[in-house]
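Module 6 notes. Inverse folding takes a fixed backbone as the condition and produces residue identities as the prediction. Think of it as a translation problem where the source language is geometry and the target language is the twenty amino acids. Below is one complete input and output pair. Work through it position by position during the lab.
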């Protein structure tokens, strides 16, 4: 059995299928980890979601910000765009959305030595905290009152975790850190607005670092697989980001970059990439 992880798909179904063929993925025996943002912007979001649902027993998924936006649109909280409207209008929409609502924000495998979260794990969380807080918001999203809860989650979030904050403020931070995080300051506070690559100029000018380079970051023991940050790949000659602590797999397929898979069940990850057509204008 091979275990493969893949970065943000965002509805790029054709590229996804090309990559699966290139790695000889067999859902009967192999396992696929998907680092969130399954849908949105790409022109085959429904096909992508239907395919993943069809092989759900072989897939490990974590939710990304675009997946949350889809659930919110289905719930009438956000307006659907042209790429997710076909999902909401599909005959099996409820089945797909209910399945999506029951996916985690954090997945891990101690034997493999990897954990996966769409944007990563907050530098203010150790791994025990990450497990507990991910479980907390998973219960809310899976609950009967998820629509009311989700409506609150789209209000402005705090950029720093405070255990004395209100329940809603804590949960807004938890959700944002798992799905929207990129940069942080030295004290671990997050910047949810910067989206570019961590160039020296940006870091020096803003005083920001990638969340995984935060000097006060707590240990999570496992290597973290994440997506969400397509411009991070631009800072690496390898075309993706990899160090001893993290493996970043969003390589900008949607923007005409690459779609990247990493095999995780070997001593060192094996990387396979394909070139992608430009789906949308940057």
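Target side of the pair, the amino acids:
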């Amino acid at each position: 059995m091979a275990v493969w992880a893949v970065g943000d798909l965002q509805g790029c179904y054709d590229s996804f299928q090309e990559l699966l063929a290139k790695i000889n993925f067999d859902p009967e025996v192999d396992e696929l980890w998907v680092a969130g943002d399954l849908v949105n912007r790409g022109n085959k979001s429904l096909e992508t979601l239907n395919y993943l649902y069809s092989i759900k027993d072989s897939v490990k998924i974590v939710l990304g910000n675009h997946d949350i936006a889809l659930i919110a649109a289905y719930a009438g909280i956000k307006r659907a765009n042209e790429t997710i409207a076909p999902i909401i209008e599909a005959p099996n929409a409820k089945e797909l959305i209910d399945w999506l609502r029951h996916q985690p924000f954090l997945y891990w495998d101690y034997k493999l030595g990897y954990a996966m979260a769409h944007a990563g794990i907050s530098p203010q969380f150790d791994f025990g905290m990450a497990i507990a807080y991910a479980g907390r918001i998973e219960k809310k999203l899976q609950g009967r009152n998820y629509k009311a809860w989700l409506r609150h989650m789209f209000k402005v979030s705090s950029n720093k975790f405070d255990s004395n904050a209100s329940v809603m403020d804590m949960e807004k931070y938890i959700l944002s850190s798992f799905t929207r995080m990129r940069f942080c300051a030295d004290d671990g506070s997050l910047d949810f607005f910067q989206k570019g690559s961590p160039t020296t100029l940006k870091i020096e000018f803003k005083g920001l670092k990638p969340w995984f380079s935060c000097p006060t970051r707590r240990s999570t023991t496992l290597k973290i697989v994440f997506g969400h940050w397509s411009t991070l790949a631009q800072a690496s000659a390898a075309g993706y980001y990899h160090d001893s602590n993290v493996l970043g797999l969003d390589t900008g397929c949607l923007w005409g970059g690459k779609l990247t898979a990493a095999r995780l069940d070997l001593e060192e990850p094996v990387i396979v990439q394909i070139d992608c057509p430009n789906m949308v204008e940057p």
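Reference fact for the lab report: Residues 127-142 form the longest helix (16 residues).
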